[in-house]
Amino acid sequence: MSGFFFGTEIVIIRYIRDDYSSVAQLFWYSLIGVFLLLPFSGGVSETVLMANMPVLIIFGVVNTAIAALLYVSGISRIEAQKGSILALLEPVSGIFFDVTILHTPLLMDTAIGCVFILFGAYIAVMEKSPRIFGKYFKIQI
User: Fold this and answer.
1) Which of 11-15, 40-44, 115-119 has the highest mean pLDDT?
2) pTM of the complete model
3) Are 26 and 72 in contact (CB under 8 A)?
4) Are 86 and 125 within 8 A, CB to CB?
5) In three state form, how does the secondary structure of the chain look?
């Protein structure tokens, strides 16, 4: 279901890119998300909320104002097929920051998965197939 809704999101962003700017799309995207998720915010006590408010504000500014704006403006400029594949880079960057900043051990399965994701993204964004593929596999990408 997540993949279906993610694909739908990419198609909608590309469909309305001529009518709405990236900032306007992000505004409506965020506003609708706030209304949908507002009922789930009541389960947090006031003391916990106030203790974590600086982190939540930083998270909101970094995630919404910077990351989401770059995401929406980037997705609206590329093909939907490439956008969905390139979105797989998000977990790879999360793993990178997890290992470098939080010093979480990197498991071999995780590293292999990251290599496959990066390799797939490389293949997806190539306009023509690289010579190495044509030479050894005789395929068109």
Assistant:
1) 115-119
2) 0.55
3) yes
4) yes
5) CHHHHHHHHHHHHHHCCCCCCHHHHHHHHHHHHHHHHHHHHHHCCHHHHHHCHHHHHHHHHHHHHHHHHHHHHHHCCCCHHHHHHHCCHHHHHHHHHHHHHCCCCCCHHHHHHHHHHHHHHHHHHCCCCCHHHHHHCCCCC
Residue spans per domain, the chain: 1-79, 88-141
Decide: residue 101, CB within 10 A, 0-12 exposed, 13-18 middle, 19+ buried: exposed
Spatial distance between the Cα atoms of 34 and 40, rounded to a whole number of angstroms: 10
Count Cβ atoms below 10 Å from residue 116 Cβ, excluding itself.
12
Query: In the structure encoding, which two tokens stand for residue 130, read together?
Result: 């690289």
Considering the chain, what is the average pLDDT of its residues?
A: 80
| C-alpha span between 7 and 13 (Å, rounded) | 10
Hey, what are 82's tokens?
């490439």
Residue 81 has pLDDT above 80, yes or no: no
pLDDT at residue 132, rounded to an integer: 53
Instruction: Look at the block and give the residue holding tokens 């590293």.
Output: 111
